[in-house]
Amino acid sequence: MAAADPLSRVFAALADPTRRDMVARLAVADATVGELAEPYDVSVQAVSKHLRVLEDAGLVSRSREAQRRPVHLEAEVFDLMTAWIERYRRQAEERYRRLDDVLASLPDDVPPTQEPLPGGGAP
What we know:
With about 120 residues, the protein is mostly helical.
């Protein structure tokens, strides 16, 4: 993957709907590559490629339990995304709060002016 920073790798990995679905399923329980491949009409090799992208982004890891090789969701990576999103959410909320303050400071009962518009037109 060309993106160097971790956040870009995570967002790029989650840009694909199949990978997002895999992450959602892994949030419920660990699964093997074969188990992850079951609902899709693709090869186990294609699922392995998706998992490699998720693994390179730090979203999943693979371990060995006897003959099983479960894929595990690394939830800590979501902290990186959450911090990034939260920063911009707070900035947007602050802008809206300032707008609310400006709107609240405007008088409520100012009647519209009945002055003619420039050029002789009526309002």
